[in-house]
Amino acid sequence: MNSVTEATGRGVPLICIPLFAEQKRNAVMVKYRKVGLEIRKEDLIEGKEKLVDAIKTILNDNSYSKNAKRLSAMIKAKPMKPEDRLLKYTEFAAKFGYDNNLDMYGRHLNTIQYYCLDIIIPAIGMALILFYIVIYIVKKVATKVLSLFNSKPKSKKE
């Protein structure tokens, strides 16, 4: 999100190539706001044509630049700047003191609850048990199949 924030803050159109995490969402938002284009990483493997086309589109189509500059102006003209918001809430806390509504619930959780260990540990345990059962069944089936192939046919005695 940092590069998207920087580019929109400066009013620069983007070419997004999402690789992991939130980058796919960021690329979708860039396309939705019409401030840039998205190229899939698979397209880059196939050749450079998609990237060259995207660069030409961004350079030749002024709508991306106009939309990026408009979004930048909107960000800069935000009704309340982050510094003002920090000052407002600091003054609020100084005036009214401690308030339960401003206290984060997660601060009072114990370690097991905070890290969801009460869910993760049983899930890992079940996965290990399931893995053991599958291995056990595969061994039994493999043993049975191998015993069928390795068994010697009984000869008829006359």
SSE layout and pairing:
Elements: H1 2-10, E1 14-16, H2 23-32, E2 36-38, H3 41-46, H4 49-60, H5 62-76, H6 82-96, H7 111-114, H8 117-150
Parallel strand pairs: 1-2
Keywords:
2 domains, 66% helix, mainly alpha, UDP_glucos_trans, flat, Rossmann fold, glycosyltransferase, 8 helices, 158 residues, two-stranded parallel ribbon
Describe this entry's structure for a reader:
The structure is a single chain. The protein has 158 residues and is mostly helical. The protein has two domains: 2-80, Rossmann fold, CATH 3.40.50; 111-150. Helix content is 66%, strand content 4%. The chain has helices at 2-10, 23-32, 41-46, 49-60, 62-76, 82-96, 111-114, 117-150, and strands at 14-16, 36-38. The protein has a two-stranded parallel sheet. Helix 2 links the parallel strand 1 (14-16) and strand 2 (36-38). The relative contact order is 0.07. The mean pLDDT is 89.
Number of strands: 2
CATH level 1 name of the largest domain: Alpha Beta
Helix content: 55-70%
Shape: flat
CATH architecture of the largest domain: 3-Layer(aba) Sandwich
CATH homologous superfamily placement of the largest domain: Glycogen Phosphorylase B
What percentage of the residues does DSSP assign to strands (E)? under 5%
In short:
This is glucuronosyltransferase. With 158 residues, the protein is mostly helical.
